[in-house]
Amino acid sequence: MSALTTKNLALHLKVERFPYLQPFQISGHVFTETAVLVAKLSDGEHVGCGEGAGVYFLGDDIGHMIAQASSVREAIEAGASREQLQALLPPGGARNALDCAFWDLEAKQKGRRVWELAGLDQPKALRSTLTLGASSAEKMAKAALAIDPQAPVKVKLTGDLAEDIARIVAIRTVRPDAWIGVDANQGYNAGTLAQLLPVLVQAGVAQLEQPLPRGREADLDGIKRPLPFVADESAVSLKDTASLVGRFDAVNIKLDKCGGLTEGLAIAREARKLGLDVMVGNMMGTSLSMAPSYLVGQLCDIVDLDGPTFLLRDRSPGVEYREGMIHCPDEIWG
Predict the structure, then answer these.
(1) Is 156 a known active-site residue?
(2) Which of 16, 90, 241, 312 registers the highest number of CB atoms within 10 A of its CB?
(3) Do the beta carbons of residue 54 and residue 255 sit within 8 Å?
C-alpha cells in the first residue's frame, strides 16, 4: 500500500457556528453556541475533512485556532505529513482539525477506513452518556426524566455545595436505577470536596470528573477516593498522562484537548499501560467531531459523545442516538 500523498495539497479553512437549543451551564461558564474550525485538505481528487471546537479553559477559541492553522498552511501545502504535524503545532483545536483531515484524506486515497489504518477493530455502537447542564434541582430532575431512559446520565455541577447536593439527590430520586456520573469542572477545593464525597457515595454516583482546578492536582494527594476520579482539565495531552497515576483513576480524552486522533489513540493506549481507565469526551462539536472520537471510544470504558444533542442543528448525515447508544454512520467521516 502506497504512503499518503502529501505533495501539492491545498488547505481550506472555514469557520462555522452552531447555536445551542438552550444555554448550557457548567461550573464557571455558560455556553450558547459552538464555533468550529473546519479544515479541508485536497489533493485535487480527494478531500479530507476535520473539525476543531477548541478548548475554552485554555483560551483556545476560534480566533486562536484560525491563527494556529494558518501558521502551518505553507508547511502543509509544501508536503508536511500528519506525523510532522504533531511537532508543527501544539495540542489544541487547530491541530485536531488538521490531524483528522489528514486521517480522512489518507483513508480516501487508499480506499480504506480510518479504523483500519489505525489498527482498530471494526467500530460498533457505543453506550454514551447524555449530559444535564447545571440548573435548579427541580429543572434537572425534570430533564433527567425527559432524556433516553436507557442512556447513562452525566450531571454538571457548579461548585456550590448545597445546590450540587440538591441536584444529585433530586436526580437520583427520579432516576433510581440510572448510571449517574458527575462533573465538577474544577469547581471544588479539598475542603468542599471532602463534604461532597459522602453524598456521592450515598447517591450511588459512579464517577467524579475533575473535582479540583487544573494545577491543583497535588491537593488530591492523600485524599481517599471512594469512587473513581476522572481527570479532564488536568489531562490535556499525552505528556500529562503519567502524572495522573495515584491521583485519578481514569483519563477523559478529548481530541480538541490533545490535538487530534493521532494523540488521542496514543493516550488511550498509554493510559491502559499505566493501569488507568479510559473515557472519551467532547467539546460540544458537531457529528464531524464525534466521528473520530467514536474511534477512540472503541478503546474506552466510558463514552461521553453527546455534543450534537445540544445543537439547534447538526450536520447531515449525523450520528444517531437511540436506546442509550451512539451510532456513527460511515458517511460522516473516515
Answers:
(1) yes
(2) 241
(3) no
